[in-house]
Specification:
Layout (H helix, E strand, L loop, with lengths): L2 H16 L5 E4 L5 H14 L6 E4 L2 H9 L13 E6 L3 E2 L5 E2 L6 H8 L2 E9 L13 E5 L4 H9 L8 E4 L22 E6 L7 H10 L3 E4 L1 E2 L5 E6 L2 E5 L2
Parallel strand pairs: 1-2, 1-3, 3-6, 6-12
Antiparallel strand pairs: 4-5, 5-11, 7-9, 7-10, 8-9, 12-13
Helix pairs in contact: 1-2
This protein binds D-4-phosphoerythronic acid.
Length: 241
Protein backbone atom coordinates (compact mmCIF):
# COMPACT_ATOMS: atom_id res chain seq x y z
CA UNK A 1 0.00 0.00 0.00
CA UNK A 2 1.45 3.39 -0.96
CA UNK A 3 2.10 6.04 1.68
CA UNK A 4 -0.49 8.26 -0.02
CA UNK A 5 -3.03 5.46 0.31
CA UNK A 6 -2.22 5.19 4.03
CA UNK A 7 -2.66 8.96 4.45
CA UNK A 8 -5.98 8.80 2.61
CA UNK A 9 -7.18 5.93 4.83
CA UNK A 10 -6.52 7.79 8.08
CA UNK A 11 -7.76 11.12 6.72
CA UNK A 12 -11.07 9.63 5.67
CA UNK A 13 -11.39 7.48 8.83
CA UNK A 14 -10.94 10.49 11.12
CA UNK A 15 -13.70 12.45 9.37
CA UNK A 16 -16.06 9.45 9.24
CA UNK A 17 -15.51 8.72 12.96
CA UNK A 18 -15.49 12.23 14.46
CA UNK A 19 -17.21 14.81 12.21
CA UNK A 20 -21.01 15.10 12.65
CA UNK A 21 -23.55 17.50 11.12
CA UNK A 22 -23.77 20.84 12.88
CA UNK A 23 -20.15 20.81 14.12
CA UNK A 24 -17.42 23.46 14.04
CA UNK A 25 -14.40 21.63 12.58
CA UNK A 26 -10.70 22.58 12.52
CA UNK A 27 -8.97 21.60 9.27
CA UNK A 28 -5.28 20.74 9.54
CA UNK A 29 -2.40 21.38 7.15
CA UNK A 30 -0.15 18.98 5.27
CA UNK A 31 -0.34 15.98 2.96
CA UNK A 32 -2.31 13.81 5.41
CA UNK A 33 -4.75 16.51 6.54
CA UNK A 34 -5.30 17.14 2.83
CA UNK A 35 -7.33 13.91 2.67
CA UNK A 36 -9.42 14.80 5.72
CA UNK A 37 -10.33 18.11 4.03
CA UNK A 38 -11.13 16.22 0.83
CA UNK A 39 -13.45 13.86 2.76
CA UNK A 40 -15.30 16.76 4.46
CA UNK A 41 -15.92 18.29 1.03
CA UNK A 42 -17.15 14.96 -0.32
CA UNK A 43 -19.62 14.35 2.55
CA UNK A 44 -20.96 17.91 2.34
CA UNK A 45 -21.47 17.48 -1.40
CA UNK A 46 -23.28 14.14 -0.95
CA UNK A 47 -25.48 15.62 1.79
CA UNK A 48 -24.25 13.08 4.39
CA UNK A 49 -22.83 16.05 6.34
CA UNK A 50 -24.89 19.21 6.84
CA UNK A 51 -24.58 22.56 8.63
CA UNK A 52 -20.91 22.41 9.47
CA UNK A 53 -18.46 25.29 9.43
CA UNK A 54 -14.71 24.79 9.26
CA UNK A 55 -11.65 26.73 10.43
CA UNK A 56 -8.55 26.28 8.23
CA UNK A 57 -5.07 26.20 9.83
CA UNK A 58 -3.20 27.70 6.87
CA UNK A 59 -3.71 29.70 3.70
CA UNK A 60 -3.22 26.58 1.60
CA UNK A 61 -5.83 24.62 3.58
CA UNK A 62 -8.19 27.60 3.24
CA UNK A 63 -7.67 27.52 -0.51
CA UNK A 64 -8.26 23.76 -0.70
CA UNK A 65 -11.41 24.06 1.42
CA UNK A 66 -12.72 26.96 -0.71
CA UNK A 67 -12.15 24.92 -3.85
CA UNK A 68 -14.35 22.18 -2.33
CA UNK A 69 -17.11 24.63 -1.33
CA UNK A 70 -16.58 24.02 2.40
CA UNK A 71 -18.15 26.82 4.50
CA UNK A 72 -15.33 28.60 6.38
CA UNK A 73 -15.22 30.74 9.53
CA UNK A 74 -12.37 31.91 11.78
CA UNK A 75 -11.57 31.85 15.49
CA UNK A 76 -12.77 35.47 15.64
CA UNK A 77 -16.37 34.30 15.33
CA UNK A 78 -15.91 30.71 16.62
CA UNK A 79 -13.46 30.43 19.52
CA UNK A 80 -14.64 26.90 20.37
CA UNK A 81 -14.51 23.92 18.03
CA UNK A 82 -16.06 20.47 18.37
CA UNK A 83 -13.16 18.70 16.67
CA UNK A 84 -9.91 19.45 14.87
CA UNK A 85 -8.13 16.95 12.62
CA UNK A 86 -4.46 17.32 11.67
CA UNK A 87 -1.30 15.45 10.82
CA UNK A 88 1.98 15.35 12.73
CA UNK A 89 5.66 14.94 11.98
CA UNK A 90 6.37 12.75 15.01
CA UNK A 91 4.23 10.99 17.67
CA UNK A 92 5.82 9.68 20.90
CA UNK A 93 4.37 6.95 23.16
CA UNK A 94 2.55 9.60 25.28
CA UNK A 95 0.99 10.95 22.05
CA UNK A 96 2.98 14.18 22.35
CA UNK A 97 3.73 15.56 18.91
CA UNK A 98 6.22 17.42 16.83
CA UNK A 99 4.36 19.49 14.24
CA UNK A 100 5.29 22.33 11.93
CA UNK A 101 7.02 20.51 9.10
CA UNK A 102 4.67 22.39 6.82
CA UNK A 103 5.28 25.72 8.53
CA UNK A 104 1.70 26.05 9.81
CA UNK A 105 2.32 25.35 13.50
CA UNK A 106 1.05 28.68 14.91
CA UNK A 107 -2.38 28.65 13.30
CA UNK A 108 -2.61 24.88 13.88
CA UNK A 109 -1.90 25.26 17.59
CA UNK A 110 -4.23 28.29 17.94
CA UNK A 111 -7.08 26.26 16.44
CA UNK A 112 -6.28 22.88 17.98
CA UNK A 113 -6.01 24.09 21.58
CA UNK A 114 -9.60 25.34 21.25
CA UNK A 115 -11.06 22.04 19.98
CA UNK A 116 -12.97 19.73 22.32
CA UNK A 117 -11.33 16.85 20.44
CA UNK A 118 -8.00 16.97 18.60
CA UNK A 119 -7.62 13.97 16.31
CA UNK A 120 -4.15 13.30 14.93
CA UNK A 121 -3.78 11.38 11.68
CA UNK A 122 -0.51 9.74 10.72
CA UNK A 123 1.01 6.90 8.76
CA UNK A 124 3.10 4.69 11.03
CA UNK A 125 6.39 6.20 9.84
CA UNK A 126 5.62 9.10 12.20
CA UNK A 127 5.67 6.97 15.39
CA UNK A 128 8.83 7.29 17.50
CA UNK A 129 10.13 6.28 20.94
CA UNK A 130 11.23 9.83 21.74
CA UNK A 131 10.72 13.20 20.03
CA UNK A 132 13.66 14.90 18.40
CA UNK A 133 16.04 12.80 16.33
CA UNK A 134 13.36 11.78 13.82
CA UNK A 135 12.24 15.32 13.03
CA UNK A 136 13.60 18.75 14.03
CA UNK A 137 11.44 20.87 16.33
CA UNK A 138 10.21 23.98 14.46
CA UNK A 139 10.13 27.29 16.36
CA UNK A 140 8.31 30.30 14.88
CA UNK A 141 10.16 33.54 15.66
CA UNK A 142 9.76 37.20 14.75
CA UNK A 143 12.03 38.40 11.89
CA UNK A 144 13.34 41.27 14.05
CA UNK A 145 16.86 40.25 15.24
CA UNK A 146 16.14 36.63 14.39
CA UNK A 147 19.81 35.65 14.83
CA UNK A 148 19.54 36.88 18.42
CA UNK A 149 16.38 34.90 19.11
CA UNK A 150 17.88 31.79 17.47
CA UNK A 151 20.86 32.06 19.85
CA UNK A 152 18.62 32.55 22.89
CA UNK A 153 16.62 29.41 22.03
CA UNK A 154 19.66 27.29 21.17
CA UNK A 155 21.36 28.19 24.45
CA UNK A 156 18.45 27.08 26.64
CA UNK A 157 19.62 24.32 29.02
CA UNK A 158 16.64 22.19 28.00
CA UNK A 159 17.71 22.51 24.34
CA UNK A 160 21.31 21.50 25.07
CA UNK A 161 22.93 19.79 22.10
CA UNK A 162 20.44 21.12 19.56
CA UNK A 163 21.58 22.47 16.20
CA UNK A 164 19.42 25.44 15.12
CA UNK A 165 18.84 25.86 11.37
CA UNK A 166 16.96 28.84 9.95
CA UNK A 167 14.38 27.46 7.50
CA UNK A 168 14.99 28.59 3.94
CA UNK A 169 12.46 28.44 1.14
CA UNK A 170 10.62 30.36 -1.52
CA UNK A 171 8.46 32.67 0.59
CA UNK A 172 5.25 31.57 -1.17
CA UNK A 173 5.04 28.05 0.21
CA UNK A 174 7.75 27.52 2.84
CA UNK A 175 9.61 24.89 0.82
CA UNK A 176 12.85 24.00 2.58
CA UNK A 177 15.07 24.16 -0.52
CA UNK A 178 14.72 27.84 -1.40
CA UNK A 179 17.53 30.42 -1.29
CA UNK A 180 15.68 32.96 0.80
CA UNK A 181 14.41 32.80 4.36
CA UNK A 182 11.02 31.03 4.46
CA UNK A 183 8.19 33.25 5.74
CA UNK A 184 5.11 31.78 7.45
CA UNK A 185 1.47 32.77 6.79
CA UNK A 186 1.92 35.12 9.74
CA UNK A 187 5.02 36.88 8.33
CA UNK A 188 7.43 35.16 10.74
CA UNK A 189 10.54 32.99 10.34
CA UNK A 190 11.04 29.37 11.45
CA UNK A 191 14.09 27.88 13.16
CA UNK A 192 14.32 24.09 13.06
CA UNK A 193 16.04 22.62 16.14
CA UNK A 194 17.89 19.42 15.21
CA UNK A 195 18.55 16.89 18.00
CA UNK A 196 20.80 13.80 17.93
CA UNK A 197 19.36 12.38 21.16
CA UNK A 198 15.69 11.92 22.12
CA UNK A 199 14.29 14.90 24.03
CA UNK A 200 14.16 13.92 27.71
CA UNK A 201 11.41 16.28 28.86
CA UNK A 202 9.36 17.66 25.96
CA UNK A 203 6.97 19.48 28.30
CA UNK A 204 9.84 21.36 30.01
CA UNK A 205 11.43 22.21 26.65
CA UNK A 206 8.08 23.48 25.39
CA UNK A 207 7.72 25.78 28.40
CA UNK A 208 11.30 27.07 28.17
CA UNK A 209 11.16 27.81 24.42
CA UNK A 210 7.87 29.65 24.80
CA UNK A 211 9.40 31.98 27.43
CA UNK A 212 12.10 33.27 25.09
CA UNK A 213 11.06 36.82 24.05
CA UNK A 214 11.01 36.83 20.25
CA UNK A 215 9.59 33.32 20.03
CA UNK A 216 6.00 33.24 18.78
CA UNK A 217 5.39 29.51 19.33
CA UNK A 218 6.88 26.09 18.62
CA UNK A 219 6.02 22.69 17.17
CA UNK A 220 5.88 20.71 20.44
CA UNK A 221 2.19 19.85 20.90
CA UNK A 222 2.20 18.29 24.39
CA UNK A 223 -0.88 16.81 26.13
CA UNK A 224 -3.16 17.94 23.31
CA UNK A 225 -3.98 14.73 21.41
CA UNK A 226 -7.40 13.21 22.05
CA UNK A 227 -6.63 10.25 19.79
CA UNK A 228 -4.11 9.31 17.13
CA UNK A 229 -5.34 7.31 14.14
CA UNK A 230 -2.51 5.39 12.54
CA UNK A 231 -2.40 3.67 9.15
CA UNK A 232 0.11 0.86 9.06
CA UNK A 233 0.80 -2.04 6.77
CA UNK A 234 -1.54 -4.13 8.96
CA UNK A 235 -4.41 -1.64 8.62
CA UNK A 236 -5.76 1.36 10.53
CA UNK A 237 -5.69 1.47 14.33
CA UNK A 238 -6.22 4.08 17.05
CA UNK A 239 -4.19 5.07 20.13
CA UNK A 240 -5.56 7.19 22.99
CA UNK A 241 -3.64 8.77 25.88
O1 LIG B 1 3.17 21.11 9.36
C1 LIG B 1 2.40 20.42 10.02
O2 LIG B 1 2.15 20.61 11.23
C2 LIG B 1 1.82 19.20 9.37
O3 LIG B 1 0.59 18.86 9.96
C3 LIG B 1 2.80 18.06 9.57
O4 LIG B 1 3.00 17.94 10.93
C4 LIG B 1 2.34 16.76 8.97
O5 LIG B 1 2.42 16.90 7.59
P1 LIG B 1 2.28 15.62 6.64
O6 LIG B 1 0.91 15.04 6.93
O7 LIG B 1 2.39 16.22 5.26
O8 LIG B 1 3.40 14.68 6.98
Amino acid sequence: VSQDELKKQVGYQAVDDYVKSGMVVGLGTGSTAYFAVERVGELLKSGELKDIVCIPTSVRTKEQAESLGIPLVTLDTHSKLDVAIDGADEVDPDLNLVKGGGGALLREKMVEVMADKFIVIVDESKLCDGLGPGFPVPVEITPFCHEHTMRQVASLPSCAGCKPVLRMGSSSNNQVDGDEIAVTDNGNYIVDLHFDEPIKDARKMAEDIKKVVGVVDHGLFCDMSTAVIIAGSEGVYKKEP
